[in-house]
Amino acid sequence: MEIVRIKIYTTFRGLKPPFEINFKSNSDRNEIDPVCFAGLNGAGKSNVMELISEIFFYLEAIHNLSAQKYVISKSPFGFYIEYRLPITANNLLVGEPSSYIVEGLQRTVCIEKKKGKEPEIAYQVDGYDRVVLNPKLQYKEDYLDIYDKLLPAKIVAYSSGGNEQISKPFRRMGFFYFDEFERATHDTENIGNTRLNRLYFMDYCSNAAVLLADFIFKDNVLNPGAENDELEYMKQVVDIQDIHSFKITFNLNIKRDYSYHKLKERMEEFAESAEVEQLLESFRALFFQKIDIPTQLQSFVTDLINCSTTQHFEFENAEQDTEEQIWVRLTLYFRVDRELKRAFQETFASIRVAGFFQNLYLLELLNLYNYSAELREEAKKAGLAKNLSEILPEIIQEDKVFYIHEVYLVKQSDSSRILYKSLSDGEHQFIQILGALLLMEEEGTIFILDEPSTHFNAAWSAKFFSTLNDIYLKRIERVQDKQQRRQNVIISTHSPIMLSDCKSKNVIWFEREKGKTQIKELDFETYGASIDYIIYLVRRQQSYQLENEQLRAENLQNQYEALKNQLNPHMLLNSLNTLRSLVRESQDKAQEYIQELSRVLRYTLQGNDTQKVPLSGEMEFVNAYIFLQLMRYEDNLRFEIRVDEQLPDKQVPPMAVQLLIENAIKHNEISNRRPLVITIRTEGGEWLSVCNRIQPKMTGESTTGIGLANLNKRYELLFQQQIVVEKTGDVFCVKIPLL
Hints:
Number of strands: 27
Largest sheet: 7 strands, mixed
Radius of gyration: 34 Å
Strand order of the largest sheet: 9-8-17-18-3-19-20
Number of domains: 2
Shape: elongated
Helix content: 40-55%
Distance between the termini: 44 Å
């Protein structure tokens, strides 16, 4: 599995089109060779990680029955992604020969999603013709299986800094998986028939499940030595010999999570009850909810009970003498030794380590019952702009439906017992990353690891990439299959220590130039370079970038000042010419004109100190300027103003609207025979337009175009936008963006 290319058609956070990133192929290597995103903080590395996460969330969600009404397939999100998938028994399409697998062929998948359009999907097997799927049929039941097999087997993400923009797509997808799982709870067929578990986010809770799965199943007591070498790497690094013991708790009588108004409404309903017992029972039902173990997981839970060392049950009807008691809370204690591992490996032989972890993940999904239906609905609706942390409260462990706790480990150095929670942040981080890579062996899996080494010590960082490659080489040796390396690992870092263990051909260097993320080629070899040398080069690059930004800012200011010096004398000269004419005609009109002109010039001088002004202030100035023009042209000049007054926060460059009016007056005939009508209006809250009928002057006065050119230059330099000039028939319009 490897991503080949990604580009965007619409702005995505700090990334602006036409941003494109081309990945370097690792198809000719015998190692996994992770791709490394590197660069200074703020350069855009995490934005690309977030983009990849959001793309695969979208592709997963639009074909998930529960997600389809929340994630619009014709969304404004626009992107193109191309990736290569190994053909395996799990994704072999109907009609494709099994020889594809034997020959080690791969399938290139291309998905293009234009803004407001359905995604267009095509694929091509190595050496065969390209196949394009019909967009109108991709949601049909017959096509869902094809589409499902064109996506990566798993997308696994991690973020050390708690980057919610990366975790959110995965957590949000969990709510849709939960709905699918809940819908299938009464289905006695295999859970594999429900499309679940493509997107995984590795957090503290899931890490405990990864730890158990690795240490219980990778230490293969049924076939000693088969998988110990890979696990041994992690044991040595974090000084952990084994798991000593752990507990799993099920809580099937959970607290309900009601909003205040909903709770008050329900309590008022119950208050009318006269029977005390009935009232108590009503309040018990109000505050607590009984959860049932889903049908698909009941046998798994039974197997866990049978494998446990001891069990502690709490029964719903403990005070009643009945033949069948129903438990509502259960804590299982596991004392880990070779016999317990044997019991696990024999009991769960059919699903092995991946199936064991998946079932623990499904049990973890039951914790979404702790949120009310209202909160779950709000979380499913959360788009790019809203974080789930703003919606969902923290749930204390004891209130959860399912949790793993009191995990004790045995230190390798002195055989002492230590609580898993008491490990350092770096040890937790290393176990999370390495544990997930050990566990997720399926070909076609992509790992998105955002800053995975923030808590590593220097020694761990300096050999992190080498450790990953060593683990994959051990896996290849174990399974006797070189195709096992066909996974995609993408890591972001700003650590020069990690870069010293990564070949420069695998490094994608990010820089921020002129407010845009740029991809650069490194001109030095990072692998084996001294830390001091890499730090020197990074700091030199940072210094160059800072100098460039300073020079750019100075250049912008110099250009802006030059533009103002061109604009202001031009307007003043026109005004004095008008005043000279009015003095000859009427002293009263001239006096009134001078008063309004002073207001206009005062605004002009004030506007020299700012780059943009409120639209309301600009329109007050425009009205004063219009008054001056009407004094001169009288009924031969008319204005139609339709500016939305509900746009108080919108801004424009100072004197931008005045310049457009002056431009229309300058280049068109204004006479009793041909009065000029100028229309000023706002359009959709995004644009302001100034339009007039084209009435060329008989004198054929030439134009330099400096006014509109300068205005457009101001927009480009200061706001990275452009004005729009339109000529439709005999109507001329200029539209300026509202800021």
